[in-house]
Amino acid sequence: MTTRNLALKNSYRDSVELMRLSQELEQMSGVQQATIIMGTDNNKAMLETAGLLTEDGKAAEANDLIIAVRLSPADDEAAIMNRVQESLDSSGRESEANASSNQPRTIDGALAAMPDSNLALISVPGQYAAYEATKALDRGLHVLVFSDNVSIEDEVELKNHALNQGLFMLGPDCGTAIINGVPLGFANAVPRGRVGIVAASGTGLQQVSCLLAAQGHGISQALGVGSRDLSDQVGGAMMLEGIRVLNDDLNTDVIVLISKPPGPMAQQQIAFALRVVSKPSVVCFLGMDVQAANIPNVYFEMTLHEAAKRVAGLLGDPTHATSPVLPSPEMTLLQEISDGLGRDQRYIRGLYSGGTLAYESMLFLRDLNFDISSNLDFPLVNSIDDDAERTHKLIDMGDDRFTQGVPHPMIDYRQRRERIFKEATNPEVGIILLDVMLGYGSHADPASELVPAINEARLLASGAGRQLAFIVVMCGTSDDPQNIQKQAAELTAAGAVVVPSNLQGVSIAAALSVGDLEMIRGWSQ
Amino acid sequence: MTTRNLALKNSYRDSVELMRLSQELEQMSGVQQATIIMGTDNNKAMLETAGLLTEDGKAAEANDLIIAVRLSPADDEAAIMNRVQESLDSSGRESEANASSNQPRTIDGALAAMPDSNLALISVPGQYAAYEATKALDRGLHVLVFSDNVSIEDEVELKNHALNQGLFMLGPDCGTAIINGVPLGFANAVPRGRVGIVAASGTGLQQVSCLLAAQGHGISQALGVGSRDLSDQVGGAMMLEGIRVLNDDLNTDVIVLISKPPGPMAQQQIAFALRVVSKPSVVCFLGMDVQAANIPNVYFEMTLHEAAKRVAGLLGDPTHATSPVLPSPEMTLLQEISDGLGRDQRYIRGLYSGGTLAYESMLFLRDLNFDISSNLDFPLVNSIDDDAERTHKLIDMGDDRFTQGVPHPMIDYRQRRERIFKEATNPEVGIILLDVMLGYGSHADPASELVPAINEARLLASGAGRQLAFIVVMCGTSDDPQNIQKQAAELTAAGAVVVPSNLQGVSIAAALSVGDLEMIRGWSQ
């Protein structure tokens, strides 16, 4: 077994393209494993840990592309590496051809091609994002920075700069927005309507907008402001701006604010701002201390599900309520699943692509005094590095440690598939809880990844005489490109319980864990 | 010389009536001095200090009225006291007759007489005000509490109660408001217009609204919120509510916020609230630390005068700008006055009825490193009790220490007259600076009080070979009941310099003090 590295100088490609390339290389005979990543110090360290770094790779710099392949023994290494090189060359030519023919390579080029543009979506590597964002703001464009790894000092400066020019600066690390009906980043196909959302959490925004869509309520504007907007350093700069604009917006009747717990100062700032807002506001700051929050016309909700319900209550019954996108799971089915679990199989494994949903589950299970390990930053919770197998686990697989050099788990199910196989061999694990984020930008067919994984995991478990419960939180709408009904049907056919809200999902997981389905009787959308 | 007290059991009268009665008694032959006050412990202590308390007065309780008179020697004491008693009895009958025929004595009575009322103005003694305000709020009425001496705990509770019912709770200690064009408390006859004001300072509100009126700009709503609303305990509760309502109000284009320095937390709260307000806001928090305040569309101004100018700038030239109500003082006149002052006459005496104006002057003179004594709570300033004659003095004569048992100096000029005489004998005092607040509720003819006092003070000074400069800040409008042109003309004829803004007044005082009129050349409205 040989490891080889190729380094291509100054050759940036985005992570989705790199995923496609890695998969292509792994199809080649003689290639056991292939990883293609940029030659940053972090990535090189990761390759080294995995035993995939050679001297060629070590010499690579941050702007170089490293192709690390592990070859099957006894093959003709030189011939294989030639084919790898050819494959990369042709893909590079293709990508360049696409770029030069269809895509401007600079903001000014884009503006020349589309002079009426008023927003720049920036998705370059973090270290270049602030520079590009400044350029865009200086040209009078609103900016959405999808990239992460932008320093918080740059974020503060960019947001001040934007405010002084009356522009929005969404992000960095803004995964989701729906502006004037146009979805940006990861977003679902929701109807237009009377609800304005400002969110420091992309998946939180997706969850609430999908739950609202299921009740026939649409979105006027949904503004992702980036995961750090509500830190005390940034002070909610863009959430405040979003509140201001939605309060003035004639098409918005209810304002919804979503975040993981804000900094204590930022939280106060938002609360005081809401004092001068006349439209009803629904606030879901997961884990926020709400004891002091008594503001007329402001509704603090502890979960995304309850936030969506509150909004629906404030808006009244929509004229054209759609029927539920996903049917509620039947209690008889859940009882059957519960009966199938062994006595010792009490542990939950939550494998999340959405950090916010993982966080919500953490709060829920902590309130039930469940013993939890997690990679989420949360007081009194074990680290997943502690090898604490005899606890429940909630893993945010969108965390940097899992996504270095590979695409986000909303696009790339490989790491979750592997984790499912691993957990299936643990005799004390009974319940596997996953989120499936549908919508633009996400994996085109998650069921095609998960159904085989579920089947294989069941095989592994049944070999040891065990069954497994799969709970899938499917966040999407009937209009999403993945066809939610088909996705749900395929997963249901594989024996998974599919629900539209994370609160439902984690409730069912908890009920199965303690073997008491009374906990969830009466659950409905 | 004999001192006599009469005590009338359970006989409350308001301070303005008591002033009228005292003045009536002092007209009677044989009466040298008369003071009529409620028999509270404070008031009794004050009478004792003045040598005006006898055993009869000592026995009086808080609800009793004490009539303290000093009689000329050798008169028929019994006969005089009989006449005093008669005078009180007849005034009491008159006041009761007025009350029973015209005025309901309870909130319910008032509501029965005027069922469409939506606001209760409460001006009972402080210890009863919270109870009456609660009653009014419970009946769905907005409340303006003119009374002071309400505990801050009661204020917090009343304001929360009001917010929960969607009502305004203006005050306690709310001296001024103009609601839907109706002046309440001390307010000027200003035109209706596009400027909405929220103020924790009644005289600040009057100053700004009059300066705006002089430039042809009117008021949509002017809400006094009480002097403590921006303390950290109350947290700007009603200023925030005022901002909310004015931001929604279709008749308001610019929002003006006025206060003495708010608590540090309240200041932050207001600043954050302004982040979500789209209308331009002008903030004059006298003495506030503005270094961190960079909010788009929010203008922080350091003086009331500059705040009014900023508002006018934001509104643009009004269609029907009126000419200045008061002409600017001529430099030749000021030079003449300056030349008349002796070398040693450098000290200023600011005798203010408006605490906010006194505070503004304090800030101005402190910036010039003037050495100041004051009864205002201000860091590094001498107390006026320290007998620090060789400093400038800024005295808020509306302070409790001056108003116990007597009317406010906006109504009653006696204490200021006496102070003018006292200062006229000080060889190092050259400049006497006064505010004259016109408008509803204020003294009907301030010139009739001040012109004789100025003349007498000049006589006293000229006996010692000195002249005196009088600077009068006259806060009013052409439509005020006092006739501002007549007031200004009479004071000008007496040699006083009359200006419409306190910033102008204190600037002139400072320039005269240092003998350098270059400081104010170019001053205009």
Question: How would you characterize the overall build of this protein?
Answer:
Chain A is α/β, with parallel strands linked by helices and 525 residues long. The first copy, chain A, has four domains: 2-102, Alpha-Beta Plaits, CATH 3.30.70; 104-168, NAD(P)-binding Rossmann-like Domain (Rossmann fold, 3-Layer(aba) Sandwich); 174-323, Rossmann fold; 331-520, 3-Layer(aba) Sandwich (Rossmann fold). Helices cover 40% and strands 20% of the residues of chain A. The first copy, chain A, contains 18 helices and 20 strands. Chain A starts with a strand and ends in an 11-residue tail after the last helix. The interface between A and B is medium-sized, with 21 and 21 residues.
Keywords:
five-stranded parallel β-sheet, 20 strands, alpha/beta, Alpha-Beta Plaits, homodimer, 4 domains, 525 residues, Rossmann fold, 18 helices
Short description, anyone?
Two copies of one chain form a homodimer. By secondary structure, the first copy, chain A, is an alpha/beta fold.
Topology:
The structure is a homodimer of 525-residue chains.
Chain A (H helix, E strand, L loop, with lengths): L1 E7 L6 H13 L3 E8 L2 H9 L5 H4 L6 E7 L5 H26 L4 H7 L5 E4 L3 H13 L3 E4 L6 H13 L4 E2 L5 E4 L2 E4 L6 E8 L2 H13 L4 E6 L12 H12 L5 E6 L4 H11 L6 E5 L12 E3 L3 H12 L15 H10 L6 E6 L2 H13 L4 E3 L7 E2 L8 E5 L3 H4 L10 H11 L4 E9 L8 H18 L5 E7 L8 H10 L3 E3 L2 H13 L11
Parallel strand pairs in A: 4-5, 5-6, 9-10, 9-11, 11-12, 12-13, 14-17, 14-18, 15-16, 15-17, 18-19, 19-20
Antiparallel strand pairs in A: 1-3, 2-3, 7-8
Helix pairs in contact in A: 6-7, 8-11, 13-18, 15-16, 16-17
